[in-house]
């Protein structure tokens, strides 16, 4: 069941400017889904979220909640819970007073308020904290109060704008798991904004990757990682080599390409790729899908190591293959790989994917 739908939504802040902050965005979000808008700074994530919240109206396009066209509804009619980066709590008030805020505005009776505050605090694992002052809590606890305050009104949609960015690395990881647990338990459709791809991958049912106001790809974390739509997505999610390779043949679902060493391999490709013999394909190859090949390995690309870094979990090398730098992350690499060594790199064909420019 579709819960939130954006259809050809665009936003231009200045009438005269021809660049749109959000440009023709169409996405559908299912009931109970955890959906993330991911992209670099300035790509239009927050502006998109604010249009869903009703803080901005689109320049064109429609926004639906279920069957309701909410495009021009004011924020208070939309029944959304908001969680921000800076918590936006009242520091001099207690936890319970902060959580009560939305209930007071909605004129919920005092008895019901007390019960619902208790419930919301239990949901975020802060039972018993109701009388604490906000400024006597850690950053992670404050963000959980902000979540409780959003959840207590039982919104139909939760909107979260970089809620973890003020927390240190360890707390971020703990709190992201906590947010996901709370979201699963409450079943609230949630739209989450972040520029952190690891966070998006770890938390989301589906992700919309944005750049320059446009959606570049929508998919599950798995789809986006293994089948990036284009070179931008391949490079923005994790790390990826994007190799330009000559095409020697093609089917609907795969493309045969020739490697620098001369060997030919079949690479997965999206339907309608349109490539044929004589074209050049862009192939995304993640560093962890490249292994060392043996000396007599004809399918390996050979080159000289230009960078080597041992991180414990893997040895990261860069290899100069005919003037192109290829990154590989080697598990159990032989000790003593040196700068300047000539090595063969073997691609794992079933992990490669043809991308659009
Ligand atoms: N109120 C505004 N008036 C004019 N331009 C704006 C306004 N808000 C955002 N913009 C512009 O719209 C574009 C998208 O901004 P937006 O804040 O949506 O990006 P973002 O992806 O959320 O970035 P960040 O992660 O840095 O918050 C940017 O170029 C920004 O400068």
UniProtKB/TrEMBL annotation:
Keywords: ATP-binding, Nucleotide-binding, Transport. InterPro entries: AAA+_ATPase, ABC_SmlMolc_Importer, ABC_transporter-like_ATP-bd, ABC_transporter-like_CS, Mo/tungstate-bd_C_term_dom, NA-bd_OB-fold, P-loop_NTPase, Transp-assoc_OB_typ2. It comes from Micromonospora echinospora. SMART domains: AAA. It comes from the Bacteria. Residues 4-237 form the ABC transporter domain. This is Iron(III) transport system ATP-binding protein. One of its GO terms (molecular function) is ATP binding.
